[in-house]
Design brief:
Layout lengths: L1 H22 L8 E3 L10 E3 L4 E4 L2 E5 L6 E3 L7 E9 L6 E7 L12 E10 H4 L1 E8 L5 E5 L10 E8 L2 E6 L2 E7 L11 E5 L4 E11 L2
Antiparallel strand pairs: 1-15, 2-5, 3-4, 4-15, 5-14, 6-11, 6-15, 7-8, 7-14, 8-9, 9-10, 11-12, 12-13
């Protein structure tokens, strides 16, 4: 008879472990870092498409076609993000997303509308850099510049701050683009961070996320 109880005991143990894991999830205001010094990206990220891999201690993606890799932990309401980035392609096209839903992607290489803010350095064949609110085209573009190009293989440092509705983006310590959203995204459906890509070969490293002072 004791053996008959074993499946039920095992099931209860698995449920208890799962509940325990959820209970230990750090709150949004807990600082987070990722140096990608491992062989697999792991369960802390929701990768929505192929093309992502760990190589030489950094996260690399090629031909992502707007299938983001979403970090599985919510952002603080006001956040400071630091990240090292590079592109191996003349196309540039280094892209991150803030305050998205943690799941969405482009299913058919068609028009992609993000659930959050999209910051693109050297998009559209290295011709334009933008801060977008959801849509990358038309009225979704809220701040832009076309006087800087991504240099292939050059390592850049992004610093992105969001305080209230104000988004400030610096590259290598210099102000790059800024915009203030009169209706800031946040709450359910607008909580997560992602790295993203279209066709360029880009890398991400030394991610740091913490509450903005």
């Amino acid at each position: 008879m004791p053996g008959a109880w074993w499946p039920w005991i095992r099931c209860l143990a698995l449920v208890t472990a799962a509940v325990g894991c959820r209970a230990r999830t750090p709150p949004p205001n807990t600082p987070f870092t990722d140096d990608f010094e491992r062989t697999e990206l792991g369960p802390g990220w929701n990768v929505t498409g192929p093309g992502y891999r760990i190589a030489e201690g950094q996260l690399e993606v090629t031909n992502g076609y707007n299938h983001p890799a979403w970090l599985r932990r919510p952002l603080p309401q006001n956040v400071l993000i630091d990240l090292d980035v590079a592109s191996k392609s003349p196309a540039g096209d280094i892209k991150v997303e803030l305050y998205g839903d943690g799941e969405s992607f482009d299913p058919d290489k068609g028009g992609y509308t993000s659930t959050g803010y999209v910051l693109i350095f050297g998009g559209w064949h290295n011709s334009l850099s933008v801060i977008c609110r959801q849509d990358e085209h038309g009225e979704g573009r809220k701040a832009e510049r076309n006087d800087v190009r991504v240099e292939p293989f050059r390592r850049y440092h992004f610093t992105i701050a969001r305080r209230g509705g104000a988004i400030d983006w610096a590259i290598d310590g210099r102000p790059f683009l800024a915009w203030t959203d009169p209706a800031p995204l946040g709450g359910a459906g607008h909580e997560y961070f992602a790295v993203n890509d279209w066709e360029a070969d880009v890398t991400f490293d030394n991610l740091s996320i913490r509450p903005a002072p």
